[in-house]
Every structure is written in structure tokens, then in C-alpha cells.
Amino acid sequence: MYEARLVDSIVRKVLCELKKNFELVLSKNLVGIDRHVKEVMEVVDSKKSHATLFLGIHGMGGIGKTTLAKAIYNKLSNQFEHRSFIADIRESWKRNGGHYLQNKLIYDILKRENEVRDENEGTNFISSKFEGKKVLLLLDDVDDVVQLKHLASERDWFSSGSMIIITTRNKRILQEFGVDYAYDHKEMDKDQSLILFSKHAFRRDSPPREFDYLAHEVVSITKGLPLSLEVLGSLLCGQKLPFWGDCQYLENTDFLSAFKNLEVLILNSCSRPQQVDSSIGGMKALLRLELRLRDSLTKLPEEIGELKALEQLLLENTPKLSALPESIGSLENLEILNIARSGIEELPDNIGSGIEELPDGIGRLRNLRELRAGGCQKLGGKLSESIGSLQNLEEQVDSSIGDMKDLVRLELRRCCSLTKLLEEIEELPDGIGRLKKLRELDAFDCKNLKGEMPESMGSLENLEILNISRSGIRKLPNDIGRPRRLRHLDASWCRELGGELPESMGSLENLEILDISDAGIKKFPNDIGRLRQLRELRASHCKNLKVEMPESIGSLENLEILDISSSGIRKLPKSIGRPRKLRVLDAAVAKTPEGKMPPNAWGLWRI
């Protein structure tokens, strides 16, 4: 027994000494990665078991997924005798085929070369020959679940204690494959971004004083993407101050075809003319294209659809850009499309925005997470049916209703043309109830949004915030009490909203704020006292509220603010003294036309 422990100890020491020989190479200019490594390792430690552990890391291109995965791989590598790092699977699979990567994996683990000739043969070989091997496997940049199924499909392919690390841009791949834990790699904060940029641009942790302003400008532009910070920092390294200023002025873009490996392209234009021509189609590696061309950009070439790797297309503040090319539907990896404050009037049916129509191909943008179209004054028309195909959309601004299963936030704020947007109807469609993940619905100031809210609203089980303030809504759904997670309901200034609040409202057990100020409501529900989490109840200027408040209001144990100023209420219930947390009771009555206070006027009480 002693000899066995001694041998094990010696092996571990030797492995530690040899660790540097098989560690993956990492940049010396890493910033902010320790926090991410710590968060992931805490999960790894908590999930340690005898089974194979599948760990996923997802996020947009350039965010640092591979770097993080390598750091974790290095941290764990001395615990494994068998290790393999399969890099750039997305491109290598297309270029060389799956069997090429399977052969690499087989060589790393068994040191046997060219064992298989096709993917099916390779899958059978790996599943049968690795069974007794405890492996550490890093599968980098996966873009199809089929790749995982051919490389590491089942836990029992490997010995207990094995660990498979997967990086991907597409969160859905991890969900479909069924990893044990998926880590969402977020952008860097501004302080860390400045340090990383400075390391590459100035070989120090902060910019010299004369470059301070421009350095902060670059950091703001890059939005916390490490790859962008490194590329721009290296590009500007050693350049004099005038060069930094001149970078934003390019007479034209016919030089673009020369930059075949460029991954980030940002074009500014303040006064000089600029065009984007067909040569942009040659930039196959481009991940992010930002055109801040203001009045100069009038058209995008069809060749933009050839940018297959593109993840972000940012066209904000381009008022003369009136249409997007149909080829935009070919951008299968596009995650963010920003056309806010553009002049877009028409989009392919595959998109959707503050324009008159969307292009037919928008539904092909399967990985789209954000569609920003705020401030598109010419937005009208109708949404394409294909908008329902955007399964990954997380946030869409100013123009979206559809069967988007992952939609988290729907903002229709100030959409005065909403009736056109919804095919000339004056109410929200029943289909809104299918947005099961929706947490926030903002229809503030949508004056043309009229009629009753659909009963299907009751199916929004994850809804937390509902804002219909200043809209033309006339009635809340009878089942408004079903979204039990609702925390904030703002129906202020809804003067068409009359009658009584639905009795089902008493079921909103998590409601914290209810604002019906200046609405046409005539009566509170009798069971309002069941809203035990309610902190604020605002009903000022509700002239039609002329009935005594219900006695059940005394059960609002967490109520802090009650505002019924300038309402029709003239009598409070006897139970009003029971809410012990009440701090503000505003029952002031508005002045008469003669400027005098009525003799029975109450005032603002701070308790």
C-alpha cells in the first residue's frame, strides 16, 4: 500500500514538472480572465463525480471563449494522462472533413495515425477504443451538434472522471447536446477593456495622457470585445497621434479586398464622402462591420451576403440608407443587427424593423439575438411572417410581434404607427401569448394601440414588467392574474381604460408596483388585499374612482406608498391603519376652478 502511494506521488510530481510541455499557449497580455476561470472552476468543483463532465462555453465571436477554455484546460491538464485540443472545428470540419479531426483526436489519445477514413468509421472507433481512458478534451468553435456526436457523443465513450470542454457561438447547440453546465461569456467592462487595449497599443496598462481621449473612444467603440481591442491596439501601436485622427477619414473603400483576414472593420465619416462597394464581399473573415457613415451611406452592395462569418452589422445613424439588400438573409451567423435611427423604409421579409417592410429572407437569420430599430421614423407596413423563424432573438426594439420563442423583451415604445405595423389592427394579436420567455412588454405611448388586451396575455408565465402607460388600451384581460411573476404593472394615463380592475388581479402574488394614475378605472377589485408584496399603489387623478376603497387594503402588509391624490375617493376604510410599513399617504384633493381647496380636502401625510 505504501509503495503504491509512493509511486502515485512520484507520478504526480513528474506530471507537474512536465506540465509546461503540454500546456496550451496563451497570450501574455490577458486581462480579466481570472474572474471567469474562477467562476467556471467553482462549477467544475461542485459537479465533480465519477461520470464524464460536459462543460460548454458560449458567446459571440471575439469574446474570448477559446482563451478561457485554454486557461481551464491548462489548469486541469496535470490531472489527466490523456489530453486533446481540437482547434477551430467550424472551419476545419468544412475544409478537411470530420474524419480528419477524428484522426487527430485518436492520435492525441492513442498515438495511432490515420486510423479512420470516414466519419462513421471514426465514430465507431472512438466509442469503442476510448472506453478505459480518462481524457481531458477541448473541442473549440463547434457550430453543429453533429460534430459533437461524431467526436464525443456519449459519456460512456470515456472512463469516469473525464472532462469535455466545448466552445461555441451558438447556445442552442449546447442545449440540444445536453451539456452539464453552459457558461455565458460576457463582454469586458470598460476598465478591463482600457487595460487590454493599452497593453497592445502602448505596451503598458494605461494610455499616455495625450492619447487618453482617443483610447477611451476606441474602448467605447469595441463594446468590450477582446479580439477587437487586440486588433485595433496592434494596428495603432507605435503610430503618432495624427495617424489616429486620420484613421477615421477614408476617401473610399475600394481597398477592402486586400484585407482578407480582417475581423473587425469600423468606418467613420464626418465630412468626407465614403462608399461601400462590392469588394467587401472578399472579407471572408469579417466578424463585425460597423458603418458610422451618417449622410454618406445610401446603399449596401448585395455582396454583403457573402460575409458568412459576420456576427454584428451596425448601421446606426445612417438616415439616407433606405433599404437593406435581400442577400442579408444569407448572413447565417448574424447575431446583432442595429439599424436604429437609420432611414430604412423597407427590409427583406426575413428581418423586421422601423421600416415599411422587411425582406423575405429575415427568417433565415437563425442566430439573431438582437434587432435594434429604435428611432426609425419611417417604420410602418407589416412584419413578415418569417419573423417567427427567429428562434434565438433575445431583444428586439420597436418592431416585433411574432412567434419568437426565446424573446425576452418586446419594446413597442412610442410606436405611433403600430396599427400599420400590425396589419391595420388596433390590438395586440393573440399570438403574443406564445412568447413564453417574455419578461418585459413595453408599449409606452402607443396611442394607436387600442381595444382590449388579448386573453392570451395570461399565458405569459414569465412576464415581470407590463407597461401600457399612455396607450389607448381600453380593457385588461380577465386573466391578468395568471402571470404570477408580474412585479410592475404601469397603466398610468390610460384614459380609455375604464370599468373595474379584473378580480383575478388579486392572484398577482409578486406584484410590487401598481400604477393606474389618471386612468379611467372606476373601482378597485375587492380582493386587492391579496397583493401581499405590493409596495406602491398609485391612483392619482383617477376621477372615476368614487367608491370607498375596499377594507381588504388593510392586508397590504408591505405597502409603503399610497397615492390617491386628486381622485374621486372621499373616504378611506377603517383598516387603513394596519399597513405598518406605510410611509407616504397622499390624499390631497385638487383645487377648484376658483383656485380654492375644497373644505374636505386632505393633504400629504408622511408617516
From TrEMBL:
The keyword Repeat applies. Gene3D superfamilies: P-loop containing nucleotide triphosphate hydrolases, Ribonuclease Inhibitor. InterPro entries: Disease_R_plants, Leu-rich_rpt_typical-subtyp, LRR_dom_sf, LRR_R13L4/SHOC2-like, NB-ARC, P-loop_NTPase. Residues 255-393 form the Disease resistance R13L4/SHOC-2-like LRR domain. Keywords: Leucine-rich repeat, Repeat. Residues 35-205 form the NB-ARC domain. SUPFAM superfamilies: L domain-like (SSF52058), P-loop containing nucleoside triphosphate hydrolases (SSF52540). PANTHER family: DISEASE RESISTANCE PROTEIN (TIR-NBS CLASS)-RELATED (PTHR11017:SF570), LEUCINE-RICH REPEAT-CONTAINING PROTEIN (PTHR11017). This is Disease resistance protein RUN1-like.
